[in-house]
Amino acid sequence: MPFIIDGQNLLRGVQKTFDQFADISQHHLCKLISAYMQRKRTYANVVFDGTGPRDREVFFSIENIEVEFSGQDKEADDVIEILITQNSAPKRLKVVSDDRRIISAGQRRKAIHIDCISFWLGLTDELQKKRTPREPAAKRDGITNSETEKWMKEFGL
Q1: CA dist., res. 92 & res. 29, Å (int)
Q2: Which residue range is the domain that position 125 belongs to?
Q3: What CATH number corresponds to the domain at position 55?
Q4: Which of 34, 37, 112, 121 is the 20 to 30 Å CA partner of 130?
Q5: What b/e readout covers 124-133, taking b as 16+ CB neighbours within 10 angstroms?
């Protein structure tokens, strides 16, 4: 289920609400969102206001998210509304924002709305969980009796 995230809205909400993230940068925020998206096996569009930092190259290598900056002549809200409108499966779309305009645009297309703090709490909760690697059943169960006999013969035991 893809996400469209109002990056500026999320960034400001996180900075104001959580002291430990008061200095979080756009880049760091995007890296955390990327890790979350990888765990959830989905992707996100993250949209920020303005032109962004001079060196935007760091945003291009982040997996599972596409970072966009609205530019000087548009607001992020304009870009987000276009993304919502262009989405081919809006009922599966999750829109993360606290902005009324964005919430309304999502509701018109029947997208799922998530407020910024709820999204952030879910993200941090998911990233704090330990991941257990998937192991093959043979590793847990051991080898079969016929395989044991074959190896015993092979080694002359």
Answers
A1: 24
A2: 3-154
A3: 3.40.50
A4: 112
A5: eeeeeeeeee
Q: How far is CA 69 from the centre of its chain?
A: 17
Tell me the one-letter amino acid at 14. V
Q: What token pair was written down for 103? A: 């919430």
In this prediction the pTM is 0.81
**Distance from CA of residue 24 to its chain's centroid?**
16
What is the number of structural domains in the chain?
1
Residues 5 and 91 sit within 8 Å (Cβ to Cβ): no
Task: Compute the residue count for the chain.
Answer: 157
Amino acid sitting at position 78: D
Query: What sign does the CA torsion over 24, 25, 26, 32 have?
Result: negative
